[in-house]
Amino acid sequence: MNDMGTKIRKLGQLSGTSEEVFRPGSVLLATIRRELLLAFRRRSDLVNPLIFFLMVATLFPLGISPEPSVLTLLAPGVVWVAALLATLLSMDSLFRSDFDDGSLEQILLSPQPLFMVVLGKVVAHWIMTGLPLTLMAPLLGIMLFLPAEGMGGLMLSLLLGTPTLSLIGAIGAALTVGLRKGGVLISLLVLPLYIPVLIFGTAAVEASVTGLPVTGHLALLGALLALGFSLAPLAIAAALRISVSG
Amino acid sequence: MSNKNWMPRWFYQLASPRWCYQITGKLMPGFILAAVLLILAGVAWGLAFAPADYQQGNSFRIIYLHVPSAFLAQSIYMTMAIAGAIGLIWKMKVADMVAKSCAPIGASMAILALVTGAIWGKPTWGAWWVWDARLTSMLILLFLYFGVMALNSAIENESTAAQATAVLAIVGLVNIPIIKYSVDWWNTLHQPATFKLTEKPAMPVEMWLPLLIMVLGFYCFFAVALMLRLRNEIIQRERRAGWVRELLIEK
Amino acid sequence: MFFESFGEFLAMGGHGLYVWLSYGFGLFVLILNILLPLQARKRLLIQQARRLRREEARS
């Protein structure tokens, strides 16, 4: 019940009055604060993707071989694929609870720019999944015998890559929010779009393992992020309007 | 008023499913004839008359299927996304129907390109599948088609499905160049200077002319397949309209 | 004509299996793309005509 109360109160802050001047920045911050508060009320949802991340990484030595020489080769790809799948797993719930209790409709009707609200939701999602995944990655790196030189590249590439994953995944989540069986469908829609991020991310880790400069790869990941930041919220907003009205 | 009529007249006529049904009925015989003639000529020329490749021998004749189908798979995705965008912006029902009809044809062309690429790979590389940049991009394109088709069939409401699919197709279209670039780059990173299937320095005329004919024939074939599906879609969605009733009674 | 005899044409210089497999599959895909919509059209027309008759009988 407490949960619901916060939800409504925060929504009130979001909608505001029409005489108020448009302040996109404050809309963004209010949305992020609302999402974070809601997330900390349900901590188990926060931890689940992280446990999943850890479990996937455990499966590879069991499935292939515990040999350090083999795992060293596989480590960049395995950590990145695991991070990608963990992000994907958490995507389905991004708009789900707001859609179920009708607050999504209120958000769409509010006079605030939807672009900013959507961006706020995605940023909050990243703070709750992408950021912890990035912080946890060195642990997986150690489990998979990633050389110490690669750790910096791994964390930097994840730091730049996971926000893009959240942005693209949110498009899929917005398109499937009205459907009962959205879970599998989301991965079908989103996985092909994740491929460039995966390619540049693992390449950055591999480059840093071999001692090559990583700035080029990181710049490409940054370019993808900039592109996603400016375009993805438009697609997410359009998709939400379609899903909710239909 | 003046600033509203900046689109040509036929653009608005296209919006009428009835007009569209009639015009496709008139255009179809011509396209069928062109497709049959061009494809027959291209196949005959490519299989029997074109010289063999000096490196790959006769297996190179698969190019006359592989390249046109790969071209078509990409163009159809573009057509689908543009039709979807028109449907989103002008709320044009026919554009939605075109977009929906494109997906299965495009997916079949991507599969054809992949299968011919794999078969061609066996004598050329000695393996049925090689992670070649072109084949990998085509595989991802096929996944994009699958996503579009899955989303379209998952949403019950026809117009919501069309709009959602259009958004996904446009997102995919923006991503295709990025995917293509990243896969090319990944490929050069992992297997430098492999032997490319279709990248040839200066093909002689006897080789590329039949290829050009095949590409044109495949485009005509796409027009026919699209019209067939589009006409079904029109009847299905306009089943309550008076003219469809008359059409059904005539039959 | 590039080939000397029909047998040579079929053999494709040892690559016959690959060439004919590709062209066979190509033919299959093209025919499927025509046949499926035609079949769907037939089904659709029958189905809609039946619906029309049903509605007329009711009114």
Give the gist of this structure.
By secondary structure, chain B is an all-alpha fold. Chain B has eight helices and no strands.
Biggest sheet record of chain B: none
What is the C-alpha radius of gyration of chain B, as a whole number of Å?
21 Å
Strand content of chain A: under 5%
Report the end-to-end length of chain A measured between terminal Cα atoms: 29 Å
Shape type of chain A:
globular
Describe the secondary-structure layout.
The complex is a heterotrimer of chains A (246), B (251) and C (59).
Chain A: H1 2-15, H2 24-41, H3 43-63, H4 68-91, H5 96-100, H6 103-109, H7 114-128, H8 130-143, H9 148-176, H10 182-210, H11 215-245
Chain B: H1 9-14, H2 17-49, H3 63-90, H4 93-125, H5 133-154, H6 158-190, H7 205-237, H8 242-250
Helix pairs in contact in B: 2-7, 3-4, 3-6, 3-7, 4-5, 4-6, 4-7, 5-6
Chain C: H1 6-11, H2 16-58
Written description of the protein model:
The complex is a heterotrimer of chains A (246), B (251) and C (59). With 246 residues, chain A is mainly α. Chain A contains eleven helices and no strands. In chain A, helix 2 packs parallel to helix 7, helix 8 (130-143) packs across helix 9 (148-176) and helix 10 packs antiparallel against helix 11 (215-245). Chain B is 78% helix and 0% strand. Chain B contains eight helices and no strands. Chain C has one domain (15-58). The A-B interface holds A 171, 175-176, 178-179, 181, 185, 188-189, 191-193, 195-196, 199-200, 203, 224, 227, 231, 235, 238-239, 242-243, 245-246 and B 88, 140, 143-144, 146-147, 150-151, 154-155, 157, 159-160, 163-164, 167-168, 170-172, 174-175, 178-179, 181-183, 185-186, 189.
